[in-house]
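SAMPLE LOG
Freezer: B-3
Tube label: C17
Construct: single chain, 242 aa
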Amino acid sequence: MTSSNHVSLNQSNVDQAELDNFNRLSSTWWDKEGEFSALHKINPYRIEFIEKFTPLNEKHIVDIGCGGGILSEALAKKGAQVTGIDLAKEVLTVAKLHSLDSGVKVDYQLVSAEQYAQQHAQQHDIVTCMEMLEHVPDPQSIIQAATDCAKPGGWIFFSTLNRNYKSYLLAIVAAERLLNLVPKGTHTHEKFITPAEMDTMARQANLYLRDSAGIEFNPLLNQYGLSENVDVNYLLAYQKGV
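STRUCTURE (predicted):
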């Protein structure tokens, strides 16, 4: 199947309940002690992981599923030219307002990954898609769109959640229900993606795995850090084939 056909078949690659949930919580996105505090805490480690493989200054980047712009602004602060795309309208409004307030320039667009990829094929040095694949009906379609956005040899970075008993206990029971680190109902365990499943989809999209890392979380100390353990949250660095 060609990527153009893939796009045409996946314009509805969205879970409206997921969008509604994020829109409902949009006003809390930039509260570092609020319901999205975990995103703020892991963001420096996402940037650290990306910079292991490529400098960010003057790079053209699209951040797929940018949400309120936490990662997008951090990338722009490194000197990158960043476009953030999302389908959660109210969350995107929060991102735009925060960008105006912070003075950090990001081009935010209300558009699907598939449609954006059709319009901007092979235009980006780097593509990021963090904490998003576990929220859509067809993650393969998003992975293909990310690949289509990248230049040959470009870098694509994903982060998502592994599917196992440990991730259920930490990401849902602990993070959502006990510690309120993320909003209740944010995650559905059945939508989590194992690294093997992730790599199979990526290879089908002509991506080559360069490295992986886990984001360790200590719920007792509320501390985060990069590790080799990919049992729960994990990051993947891919390069597009030339």
